[in-house]
Amino acid sequence: MSKTKQFHVAVVGATGAVGQQMLSILEQRDFPLASLKLLASARSAGKKVMFKGNEYTLEEATPEAFEGVDIALFSAGGSVSTKLVPEAIKRGTLCIDNTSAFRMDPDVPLVVPEVNPDKIFDNNGVIANPNCSTIQMVAALKPLYDKYGMDRIVVSTYQAVSGAGAKAIQELVDQSQAVLNGDEVKKEVLPVGSLPVKHQIAFNAIPQIDVFLDNGFTNEEMKMIRETKKIYGDESIKVSATCVRIPVERGHAESVYVELKEDFEMADVMALFANAPGVIVQDKPEEQVYPMPADATGKIEVFVGRVRRDLDYPKGLHMWVVSDNLLKGAAWNAVQIAEEWIKRQ
Ligand code: A2P
Predict the structure, then answer these.
(1) 205-247 pLDDT tens trace
(2) Phi-psi domain of 330 (left: phi exceeds 0; alpha: psi -120 through 50; beta: other)
(3) 252 catalytic, yes or no?
(4) Cα–ligand 1 centroid distance for 64 (angstroms)
(5) Minimum CA distance residue for ligand 1 atom 4
(6) DSSP states of 273-320
(7) Residue to probe by mutation, ligand 1, list 20, 22, 37, 41, most atoms within 8 Å of CB
(8) Does a structural domain hold residue 2?
């Protein structure tokens, strides 16, 4: 990346599960920082965080905090973004928002750089980062979509608890210890639904992520459905999703079934995946090689394996897609958008 220009950057939600990964990615990528501001709630103000060997003091995220900030990466929840993104825009800040607050706003680009990078430059001050499960799926499927067209996607997810934040990670650890010790299991965080009802996640699977809607789908499932159509710019594509929380700390896995519009050869499909930007193929069944969350943790790519033609429908294709939900699904996609934007400044 060009180092000639440097940028004043703020991370909003810097103490959170995604915010911490944003800091680590900014550090690893040697991002051209003129300054860095770490923002969180008033509870965290004054606390210290290390970045590149220097100590930074957390500040409360207020409208005034955005004075002089060129780029703000938001991951502090939808209500914080709803309140502060307009304030930051007023002060000339480009906001890259990891919450769902603006994703479906027709005036806000929803961007996965491997899929629709040009939309980055069609913004009114805010660019939305899609839902973690959507990002890895659309990035993996993009070359198939371009070459063959796509009629339908049916996806079932196996999602890590870190998607529900730092408290959910702690809940998985605490519950697992309690089960192994034979202690009482406390259920306080998952699922994050509309009712106070909570379920055990340790040694379990919960088929609910976010609230239920009147159509029987959850909000997470509807995010995958709506966001996929928006990112591909194609309302005709049929999408359905079942989203499940599993007791994994990091890395979402997805069983994806697609029906393509045209006939395909398996060798061509595998070559497309092998050449797709940001995608790594791990598919050697004879050696029991396939993507898994434990291997994807800490990596920025999307991993694809178990690729096979449907036995009854020749234009149908099954695959298994895994990625680190905190990185490509959140922090890395946001920083990648910022890097693409910077290239044209
Ligand atoms: P804090 O640690 O001060 O509460 P996670 O998704 O892992 O739960 O993280 C949520 C992030 O959002 C944290 O950094 C949290 O900061 C931040 N946050 C929560 N509420 C606010 C708020 N009202 N203003 C700014 N940041 C907030």
Answers:
(1) 999 999 999 999 999 999 999 999 999 999 999 999 999 999 9
(2) alpha
(3) yes
(4) 18
(5) 41
(6) HHHSTTEEE--BGGGTB---HHHHTT--SEEEEEEEE-SS-TTEEEEE
(7) 41
(8) no
- Both 111 and 174 in a single domain? no
191 cis-preceded (ω within 30 degrees of 0): yes
Rounded to the nearest angstrom, the distance between the alpha carbon of 60 and the centre of ligand 1 is 10
183: CA distance to ligand 1 center in Å?
30
CATH at 117: 3.40.50.720
Q: Are 77 and 154 members of one domain?
A: no
Q: Is the CB of 77 under 6 A from ligand 1?
A: yes
Q: What is the pLDDT of residues 20-31, one digit of tens each?
A: 999 999 999 989
- Which domain does 299 fall in, by range? 134-325
Mark whether 152 and 232 lie in a shared domain.
Answer: yes
Residue 14 has pLDDT above 60, yes or no: yes
Same domain, 155 and 114: no
| Domains: count for the chain | 2
Domain with residue 244: its CATH number is 3.30.360.10
Structure-token match 């990670």, residue found: 169
Q: Which amino acid is at 236?
A: S
Say yes or no to pLDDT of 1 above 60: no
